[in-house]
Write a structure and sequence with these properties.
Helix content: under 10%
Radius of gyration: 33 Å
Oligomer: single chain
Structural class: mainly beta
Length: 514
């Protein structure tokens, strides 16, 4: 059966779905709803695979399963209820709805309107299901041979590995290929759209404003930060233009027209088996905002809530990008170089008396940009976790060149942001052990370490030499030719300024005792 015939079949059957409803049932009108969506994300920064928001070759729609996030949907609709019992059905709900989270309430007469039963029907019509329902019933099969079209009708005996029919003359027809099928009606139990069905008892007849809330999968959001770096008066300073964009995926199976949009930033705990929404997850803000505003941020419980200052439409099978906040210009930044000669080395597992342990041979010096997320710098807003891409303008032709990217976790205001860009090309490090002594009876050992930083640039650079005192928890530095700063119980930093085409040497001796 080809796709065009199947589409025509579905459209013909769709018109008969509601006509099969039992007496006393009504359908909620579409196009008369006020929709609000709050989206929660468990996506790792920069970790959303492309197949989640872009169709793969040969596939019609993106892959909705496994999308790292969910949404709370609230819809207010005008409905008509009878005095007494009414069956009310909503047909335009998300295909990935969690039915255990569905809530229905009448805002017009809440005290005298009760939900007796609610059902989620999701047995959607398909060729395969139609064939299974039509076993022992009559079907019409069309076959195309060149320009010739023939029809075979009969009782369907099997749809496994082709079709098997018994004709009116009693003959058995085994059909491996066919161009289309015709069915006399849509069998009971099959529907064309996911449907919510309520059995409602109401005292007030006539128009009600109904509020429906539910949780659905297939939706997520994440943040992308675009930074442009401008070098400052020296090699260790500069400025950043900081822009932020929110990307939103909707693969829930429903479209949301002209909706109020909110995003939750923070790590919201969820049980393994989803339950009804917690109160703090269902709070909907009522603050009026200008239509041209981007997202407005405020605290919600222990999280941060971002509310878009205008309504937006989220079509199904789509990705939308919205500016998170107005770009901040000329944010002061500092370039930091860090040499960690013990990269890849494990420490903290116990007493390390092996003299050869700790010599990794790493020469890479990592490069970072640091800026303060405060109002003075032009920011001062909570930054949701996301990927940071940094570029710099090439003064020769004013083109924007990519210089590195990193990810950040949720970052409150007034905290420092550290962005790793890569490794320095013209600045290298070298670490080696100069001396080692151990006295197991005296329960001590000493190690002398030398670190060389060579700068091949035409300007001086600042470098932090990071050293882990990894052999044991009880240590003391007996002597050092440079000052150092203690970062934690096992880490020290030696801040160095290395002259242009120059070299600096750090030499220190540490004693461990136990």
């Amino acid at each position: 059966m080809n796709s065009s015939d199947n589409s025509r079949l579905m459209s013909l059957l769709a018109g008969g779905v509601l006509a099969t409803a039992c007496a006393g049932s009504v359908s909620a009108p579409t196009g008369e709803s006020d929709t609000a969506i709050t989206i929660y994300s468990s996506a790792q920064p920069g970790g959303v695979p492309a197949e989640y928001y872009r169709p793969l070759p040969g596939q019609g729609v993106p892959n909705a399963s496994g999308i790292p996030g969910y949404a709370m949907v609230r819809q207010d609709r005008k409905v008509d209820l009878n005095s007494g019992r009414t069956q009310l059905r909503f047909t335009d709900v998300a295909a990935l709805i969690d039915p255990t989270t569905v809530q229905f309430a009448s805002l017009s007469d809440p005290d005298n309107t009760r939900v007796l039963e609610q059902n989620f029907q999701f047995d959607l019509v398909s060729t395969e299901k139609l064939l299974s329902k039509y076993v022992d019933r009559n079907v019409v099969v069309q076959q195309s041979l060149g320009n010739q079209v023939s029809e075979v009708s009969g009782t369907l005996l099997s749809s496994v590995d082709g079709l098997v029919l018994r004709g009116s003359d009693g003959q058995i027809h085994a059909l491996r290929q066919y161009s289309s099928l015709r069915f006399s009606e849509l069998p009971g139990g099959l529907i064309t759209q996911p449907t919510l069905l309520w059995d409602i008892a109401a005292k007030k007849s006539g128009a009600h404003t109904a509020r429906v809330t539910y949780q659905t999968g297939g939706m997520t959001w994440w943040t992308d930060y675009n930074l442009t770096f401008t070098p400052g008066s020296n090699a260790n300073s500069g400025y950043l233009d900081v822009g932020a964009w929110v990307s939103i995926i909707n693969q829930s199976g429903a479209s949301y027209e002209n909706a109020k949009l909110k995003l939750i930033a923070g790590d919201v705990q969820r049980a393994e088996s989803p339950a009804a929404p917690r109160p703090e997850m269902a709070v909907m803000a009522k603050r009026a905002m200008a239509e041209d505003k981007a997202f407005e941020e405020k605290s919600l419980f222990e999280y941060h809530l971002y509310t878009l200052g205008r309504r937006t439409t989220l079509p199904n099978n789509s990705t939308k990008q919205v500016e998170l906040f107005e770009a901040a210009k000329r944010v002061p930044a500092r370039k930091i170089m860090v040499y960690y000669g013990q990269t890849g080395m494990y420490f903290g597992g116990g007493l390390m008396t092996d003299s050869d342990y700790g010599n990794t041979g790493s020469k890479k010096i990592d490069v970072y940009l640091e800026f303060k997320n405060d109002e003075k710098a032009g920011l001062g807003v909570p930054l949701p976790k996301g990927r940071i891409r940094v570029s710099q303008i090439d003064s020769a032709d004013q083109s924007l060149e990519f210089i590195g990217e990193d990810v950040i976790d949720h970052t409150p205001k007034n905290e420092r942001v550290l962005v790793k860009l890569g490794s320095a090309f013209d600045v290298v490090g070298e670490r080696k052990q100069i001396d080692f002594a151990v006295d197991t009876k005296g329960r001590w050992m000493e190690e002398e370490v030398e670190v060389r930083i060579r700068n091949h640039k035409s300007e001086s650079v600042d470098v932090l030499v990071k050293e882990n005192l990894y052999r044991w928890t009880n240590w003391s530095i007996k002597n050092s030719n440079h000052t150092y700063e203690k970062d934690d119980a096992r880490t020290v930093f030696f801040p160095l300024k290395v002259a242009a085409d120059g070299q600096e040497i750090v030499r220190y001796r540490v004693r461990y005792s136990w």
